[in-house]
Amino acid sequence: MGSKKVGSCKIVVQDNGVLQRVCGTNDNNLKLIESFLGEPVFACGNEISIDSKSPDKAQLFNFIINRMMDEIEDGSNPDSDGTMLRSIISTSAGTSFSDRNLDDGDLFDICSIMVPGGTRKVYPRTRGQADFVDMMRRTDLVFAVGPAGCGKTFLAVAEALRLVLSHEKNGIILTRPVVEAGESLGYLPGNLEEKINPYMRPLYDAMNAVLPRDTVRKMVESSIVEVAPLAYMRGRTLGNCVVILDEAQNTTVEQMKMFLTRMGDGSKVFVTGDITQIDLPGRTRSGLVHAMSVLENVQGISIKRLGAEDVVRSGLVKRIIQAYDNEKCGL
After folding, report:
1. Cα–Cα dist 225/203, whole Å
2. For a designed S-S bond to 211, which of 46, 199, 215, 238 qualifies (C-beta 3.0 to 4.6 A apart)?
């Protein structure tokens, strides 16, 4: 990669193992970053630097290297073909989200969710996911629909935790419709909390992925995080909190209207669902599908439609979703 120059941005990587994975085999990752930025990147000892007169490129370089180190420390390994690095570069390359143009500072703020006391930073991995995070920051009611594995629930939970643990909101309310599949809640053993817990498991899993389990348990015990079936929202006014309605495709039109009219002053509501997996009986219309149609152009409401390209759970999951989409289209 050449001899060291005094760059406009210099990053010291203390761990040699992390340094090797950042640089890649034969410095292939650094070469890819050079190609993207159009500026030489230098590695000398445990330092990686860029020599550029452009502060914007220096800022991009700083973001990319630090993002790679965060991913590696979280257990990820840069792929030999540069897939992970290309994903990071793709996220950093855009300068606009939704209907506004962003400068680099705004872009980088949007690209990560830092939860106070969290075990990791949370980054959107696609432009669609970054757009969703931007919407949650800008508007009080956000709908996010997309297939399994596109990160809609995880990102909503992470943003909710950030808002509460940074003391911007007082609490989190997690809810979802209970669509019974041969087993009624009334016949399940235990009290209400024990009955509803299996339905709320994905939301607990998302919290545990971001915070230590003891922290999550204490938040639930102190009612900072409240878990409740959708039916228990009737008659309440939910103020200065974050409310997440998960699996919203299984609400009826009446349930969705009831839920949305619970919003109080200072509250944020994130509604997530997958309209390809509606479990409502017969010809019952999905409240999520109806709400997105009715509220599409209402000021203060954002709707993000994620697709197979936003699936990050597994490459195989992405291919499965694409195969089903192709079959539906008759391809």
Report:
1. 11
2. 215
